[in-house]
Amino acid sequence: MNKDPNPDPGSAHSIRYYNRYTRKIESEAVYGEGFLRWVYETSCGRLALHAMVKRAWFSRWYGWRMSRAHSRAKVQPFIERYGLDSTEFAEDPAAYGSFNEFFFRRLKPECRPVVTGNHLAAFPADGRHLGFTDIHRTQRWFVKGQEMPLQALLQSAALADRFREGTLVFSRLCPVDYHRFHFPVTGRMTAPPRLIDGSLLSVNPIALCRDLGILTRNRRYLTQIDSPDFGLVLMLEIGATCVGGIAYTAVGENVVKGEEKGYFQFGGSALILIFETGRVKLAEDLVEHSQAGRELYARVGDLMGNKV
After folding, report:
1. In a domain? residue 5
2. Domain identity same for 146 and 292
3. Is a pLDDT exceeding 50 seen at residue 59?
4. HSE-up (13 A, CA, CB side) for residue 295
5. Are both 79 and 124 inside the same structural domain?
6. Which among 108, 203, 244, 289 is least buried, having the fewest CB atoms inside 10 angstroms?
7. Are 46 and 40 in contact (CB under 8 A)?
């Protein structure tokens, strides 16, 4: 494996990740990078963060701006700047009534095939992913020494104890990504998504490498999926700065791998999947690059792991 000269994706240099499809280490084009670095890396920015940016009203206001008709003028320049493939879109770019409509766009189904076989688990979204085979022994997330406090994340001592030595996959969606999320396994939702309220802080590595606890303080929804093949699986949708909302489109309690669960409105966002110990073996490239402190770029429906 090529050694990454910048193994911490949230460092002051470019954010680096491994692209499964090009088989290269690439640099992320960060939407709003200047603003993010000002907010999280300067004293004045941190004051603004606590006074305004992390507040729900700020994200609602920004989401409202992106839902107005005049925002549609941003669509084509955004596509061109970040090199998006508009042939994947289910609609012509000119058909979107606002930037937000474009942001949570649908794709043509054939553009995101789902790995077949109930013994295989699929990535729930397009994004940059980290995978940890033993949460309890994880020594490193975005920087060495930060661990995931499960009880704070799940707001349940019983679940935290049940999954403390389980397997966790963190999926980070950038503003340039497809923002609909899908079920990773087939099974049954034991209850509707449960809201755990909180702030709306950035989930970009620029922020997370300084404070992983953001994930335990941000607004999030928790779903439990009872899977015949993978046991009980926890799925969390995590809001972030400028996310105008999380909408759910799945109907009924029985779910199928690859089926759409919902979508994030404007802004970066994240998903967390947690499996019970000994129930899933993560894909080799996901484990390899996560151990190096580097995210793996992969698309929704692609192979994430297999049943043990």
Report:
1. no
2. yes
3. yes
4. 27
5. no
6. 108
7. yes
- Final residue in a domain of this structure, among 79, 103, 127: 103
- The total domain count for the chain is 2
pLDDT at 203 over 90: no
> Which residues lie across from 232 on neighbouring strands?
226
State whether residue 231 is helix, strand or coil. strand
For residues 84 and 198, membership in a common domain is answered with no
Domain boundary pick from 78, 103, 128: 103
Cβ–Cβ < 8 Å for 38, 32: no
276-308 pLDDT, tens digit per residue, is: 999 999 999 999 999 888 999 999 999 999 999
Count of alpha carbons within 13 angstroms of residue 270, beta-carbon side? 26
DSSP H/E element including 101: helix 99-103
Q: Is residue 211 part of a domain?
A: yes
Strands 231-238 and 220-227: antiparallel
Return the active site residues.
Answer: 126, 182, 269
Instruction: Kindly state whether residues 232 and 285 are assigned to the same domain.
Output: yes
Residue with tokens 């090529």: 2
Same domain, 157 and 286: yes
Q: Pick from 269, 266, 147: which is nearest to 218 by CA?
A: 269
Do both 172 and 90 map to the same domain?
no
Position of tokens 């929804």? Answer: 221
Token pair for residue 244?
A: 């105008």
Kindly indicate the confidence band of residue 12, based on its pLDDT and cuts at 50, 70 and 90: very low
Q: What integer pLDDT is reported at residue 57 of this predicted model?
A: 47
pTM, full prediction = 0.85
- Domain of residue 242 covers 115-307
Sheet with strand 120-122: strands edge to edge: 120-122, 303-307, 280-282
Regarding whether 236 and 169 lie in a shared domain, the answer is yes
